[in-house]
Amino acid sequence: MTQLHADDLTLAYERRVVAEDLSVEIPDESFTVIVGPNACGKSTLLRALARLLRPRDGTVYLDGAPISALPPKRLARRLGLLPQSPLTPEGITVADLVARGRYPHQGLLRQWSREDETAVADALAAVGVADLADRVVDELSGGQRQRVWLALVLAQETGVMLLDEPTTYLDIAHQIEVLDLCARLHEEGRTLVAVLHDLNHACRYATHLIAMRGGEVLAAGPPAEIVTADLVERVFGLPCRVVPCPETATPMVVPADRRRARALTADTL
Amino acid sequence: MLPLASRRPEPPAGADGARGAGALRSGRRARLGWIALLTVLLLLTVVASLAIGAEHVAFGRVLPGVFSPDPGSRDELIVHELRLPRTLLGVAVGAALGLAGAVMQALTRNPLAEPGLLGVNGGAALAVVVVIGTVRADDALVYVWAAFVGAAGAAALVYAIGARGRGGASPARLVLAGAAVNAVFSALTAGLMLLSPRSFNGFRFWQVGSLGGREMSILPRVLPFVLAGTVLALLLARPLNALAMGDEAGRALGSRPGRTRALGAVAVVVLCGSATAAAGPIAFLGLAVPFIVRTLAGPDQRLVLPYSLLLAPVLLLGADIVGRVVTPGELETGIVTAFLGAPLFAVMVRRGRTRDL
Ligand SMILES: Nc1ncnc2c1ncn2[C@@H]1O[C@H](COP(=O)(O)OP(=O)(O)OP(=O)(O)O)[C@@H](O)[C@H]1O
Ligand SMILES: [Mg+2]
């Protein structure tokens, strides 16, 4: 059994049942990427793994114990989450926002400490925003803001990091930068779980891929073993070709040109 | 330990070139400086409140009047019997309302949430008036508890109305619900007072709050509650910070938004109930003070809460002094705060500094 796994989850909001009998395993020290169409339940699964959503049925285990039994701060020292759309308090500076990642390490009797200070400084430096430390977060670009939020989760110093679409809002260069950063965090021994929409990025960076559709896992495994044209068609309903990436030899998904197909059928009529 | 004692990170090495206004306002020295400045300001206001009033009192009589009044000196008696209790009441009521406003705004993530505007103080006043009109208790403590019940009921009612329907409790909806509930409460309060004018003896402060003309036996009754509410509110500074990033991010950091909201609501009810039992419903103080403090110090509740605690009595006593001197017979403190606070409210609404929940 892996450190983090979920057994037979039924995930539901008040009325809408999002997933039933959903089981996932996050391999230890993996960089796991979850892909799937909009509204298939990726964020919902992350919420359940982070105990933000209580499963209607089933259990999430961390280090062999059900996470529902852990005190909140203890859980938050083991597992961090970057939500898909967090709120930025108005007028907060970058350093102050990142410092809030230290919350689970503090308490009434344990206020700000040297370790907190180093953790925040390291996190700022790791995502390359140290020179923005005194800027107001509201006044940053979307990409800068995304990296600041990553720094907050980093400052939390957890062994497991769950990232919901960490590359949205970023230009291609910054997407790669953030993914390289994630890869580095992963190499340093952390377990990462990220939701990504770009399949080529997912295939390039993931050591373990989970493909979801309609609240079900259709396939899970190393991208090179599971990503086929057939799988992409089943998950996204998108006809495509899968070719080796010329740069990394990982699978690369090239959507079929449906315009040409349409033009051809139009000609034959 | 109070959150005051906590520290924040220095900017990391290499960030020196970027030390801007943020670093200045987050430095520890700057923070102690603010605390010192606000404390001095409060002391000066207290002295002014003892020295200035409708009756002229020689300044040299103020200090003896506070500590050892000479029964033969009219000036010293005025200071000791009238102005000292009134000033102490102003400090307690101001601190309670400023802090309650700051906590409410943090809880609802709504800069317009304010005990006066949202009807919490109005509910407390109505409950007190009902109790005065029906049971006529001898012990002022009964009124304090009535005020708690009224404040809690009003808060629950406004929240229930504001959160109904699609979209939940957005800032605008909460304020609208609060205004409506508050209007009903003050109409009921006025009606009850008309029904039994003798029980109220011309005390208008149950409609518009005032520091003047109050029985001073109320102060020792509310003081323990104000202190308890203050300690609870200050202890919530860090959980409120975690809540500011949304419930999801807050819970992912190990905070408990549900518990923070419940404890915060208790603090607000205790603070607003005490303040209203002591001085009647006073509006706008809880709006203006946290707004000014956030503008100066940013959104960190470990600063916003203590600064609000110190600044609010300065403004309330200031308003009270203004009310004493502008008209021959005094102007109710609550009217002065409304006069100064309403324009600020308009500015805040126009600036659109409200974010939906
Ligand atoms: N708070 C909520 N209350 C009710 N239903 C919700 C809530 N959040 C999500 N849902 C519903 O649950 C389903 C799964 O949503 P989820 O956010 O997990 O999708 P997702 O895979 O993350 O999609 P996306 O790629 O768009 O982020 C959707 O049908 C969505 O409408
Ligand atoms: Mg999502």
TrEMBL record, chain A:
Membrane-related topology note: Peripheral membrane protein
Alphabetical list of PROSITE patterns matching this protein: ABC_TRANSPORTER_1, ABC_TRANSPORTER_2
Superkingdom assignment: Bacteria
Cellular component GO terms, alphabetical: plasma membrane
One family name in Pfam for this protein: ABC_tran
Molecular function as annotated in GO: ATP binding; ATP hydrolysis activity
Compartments, as annotated in UniProt: Cell membrane
Protein's name according to its UniProt entry: ABC transporter ATP-binding protein
Species the sequence originates in: Actinomadura syzygii
TrEMBL record, chain B:
Gene Ontology MF: a single term: transmembrane transporter activity
Topological category with respect to the lipid bilayer: Multi-pass membrane protein
Alphabetical list of Pfam families matching this protein: FecCD
GO cellular component, one term: plasma membrane
Cellular location(s): Cell membrane
Residue ranges that the Swiss-Prot or TrEMBL entry lists as coiled coil: none
Region (Disordered): 1-21
Domain of life, source organism: Bacteria
Major place of residence: membrane
Gene3D superfamilies (UniProt xref): ABC transporter involved in vitamin B12 uptake, BtuC
Transmembrane domains' residue ranges: 32-54, 87-104, 116-135, 141-162, 174-195, 222-241, 262-292, 304-322
InterPro entries, sorted: ABC_BtuC-like (IPR037294), ABC_transptr_permease_BtuC (IPR000522)
Gene Ontology biological process terms, A to Z: siderophore-iron import into cell
Alphabetic keyword roster: Cell membrane, Membrane, Transmembrane, Transmembrane helix, Transport
Family note: Belongs to the binding-protein-dependent transport system permease family. FecCD subfamily.
Annotated protein name in UniProt: Iron chelate uptake ABC transporter family permease subunit
Organism: Actinomadura syzygii
Lineage: Bacteria, Bacillati, Actinomycetota, Actinomycetes, Streptosporangiales
